[in-house]
């Protein structure tokens, strides 16, 4: 009897090991065939870019996405600060060994601060948000602001730059790489300029950028991401690549309210470092954080995270329209303004037909958003 039990135990162990190996193989296979993505971002700890980083890692753990890397560009913050926040993010999530961080462009192609100040003086308005230009450029580690849980100690910046990483990734996986462009377009513009042969090899670009039929935010006419580097945005939008634009037209209608905020920040059964940082850095009017008083009517627009859910399933977009989109790069009140043409390119300009998202399935989006931001951390990638 003892021998029978012993043999049975051995057989059970073998089956268990084989099953676990099979599960791991299946998960690995799923990730290998999942959409390959580069997140090109002006990264931050837990605003829209940081939230998208969390969602991407959780989706990768489910085998639904394959994040090749995070490329960082100046925009919301200067490059050095964005890199520091991105490194801490992948370390915090436990994915630093699988998702590398690559430093990119520190300055826009041509939209410098002197030009911005002249435009502001002559054409005031908008919310005045300047991103990186709101603070002095950091020159050393001592100039950087640590995330609330400290700087990364093990995650390191990749030696390869963002531009070369984009080029090499697209060449390695022709027609497979989606670029989630959730910051200024400087890195991508530099990549296609340096190596134009990658243009037909990019599968698609999904942007959070532009304002087609609504007002801008940074200025009365321009959305921040494309305003920060209008020349780069215009360059990339004019490329013959499949492109999807998620502009302020839709982000103005996807609003984080107190109910959904509480589902993330205040669910006692789903507390992680991510939810705690979310509460600390996004709380403001919801919970009276950082000197703000609690406001029962306080809401926040949702921006970058719409791009990753559209990638997962385009049916999240309940209304879209095909347009030819361009960006104004001329000095003046409309610098950085995006324009959507519904009847083809204007005379003398060759534009590309792109999909412009106008409305989202908000209820379905927030269910996914809450779920991904409240999953266990560290993330267990296969």
TrEMBL record:
InterPro entries assigned to the protein according to its UniProt record, in alphabetical order: Inosine/uridine_hydrolase_dom, IUNH, Ribo_hydro-like
GO biological process, one term: purine nucleoside catabolic process
SUPFAM superfamilies (UniProt xref): Nucleoside hydrolase
Keywords assigned by UniProt, alphabetized: Glycosidase, Hydrolase, Signal
Domain spans labelled Inosine/uridine-preferring nucleoside hydrolase: 37-367
GO cellular component, one term: cytosol
A matching Pfam family: IU_nuc_hydro
GO MF annotations in UniProt: purine nucleosidase activity
PROSITE patterns, A to Z: PROKAR_LIPOPROTEIN
Protein name listed in UniProt: Nucleoside hydrolase
């Amino acid at each position: 009897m003892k021998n029978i039990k012993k043999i049975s135990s051995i057989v059970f162990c073998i089956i268990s090991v084989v099953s676990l190996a099979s599960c791991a193989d299946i998960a690995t296979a799923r990730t290998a065939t999942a959409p390959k993505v580069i997140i090109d971002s002006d990264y931050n700890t837990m605003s829209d870019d940081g939230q998208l980083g969390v969602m991407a890692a959780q989706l990768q753990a489910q085998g639904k996405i394959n994040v090749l890397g995070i490329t960082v560009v100046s925009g919301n913050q200067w490059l050095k600060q964005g890199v520091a926040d991105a490194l801490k993010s992948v370390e915090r999530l436990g994915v630093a060994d699988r998702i590398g961080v690559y430093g990119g462009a520190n300055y826009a192609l041509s939209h410098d601060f002197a030009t911005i100040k002249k435009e502001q003086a002559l054409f005031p308005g908008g919310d005045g948000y300047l991103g990186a230009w709101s603070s002095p450029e950091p020159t050393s580690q001592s100039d950087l602001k640590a995330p609330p849980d400290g700087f990364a100690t093990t995650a390191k910046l990749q030696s390869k730059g963002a531009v070369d990483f984009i080029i090499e990734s697209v060449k390695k996986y022709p027609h497979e790489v989606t670029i989630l462009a959730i910051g200024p377009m400087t890195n991508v513009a530099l990549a296609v300029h340096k190596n134009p042969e990658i243009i037909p090899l990019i599968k698609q670009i999904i942007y959070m950028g532009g304002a087609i039929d609504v007002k801008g935010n940074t200025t009365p006419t321009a959305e921040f991401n494309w305003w920060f580097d209008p020349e780069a945005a215009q360059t990339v939008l004019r490329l013959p690549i499949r492109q999807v634009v998620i502009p302020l037209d839709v982000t103005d209608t996807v609003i984080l309210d107190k109910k959904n905020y509480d589902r993330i920040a205040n669910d006692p059964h789903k507390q992680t470092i991510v939810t705690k940082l979310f509460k600390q850095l996004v709380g403001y009017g919801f919970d009276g954080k950082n000197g703000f008083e609690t406001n029962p009517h306080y809401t926040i627009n949702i921006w970058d995270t719409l791009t990753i859910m559209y990638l997962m399933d385009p049916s999240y977009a309940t209304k879209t329209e095909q347009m030819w989109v361009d960006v104004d790069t001329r000095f003046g009140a409309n610098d950085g303004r995006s324009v959507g043409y519904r009847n083809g390119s204007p005379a003398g300009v060759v534009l590309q037909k792109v999909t412009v998202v106008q409305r989202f399935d908000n209820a379905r989006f927030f269910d996914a958003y809450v779920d991904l931001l409240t999953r266990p951390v560290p993330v267990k990638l296969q």
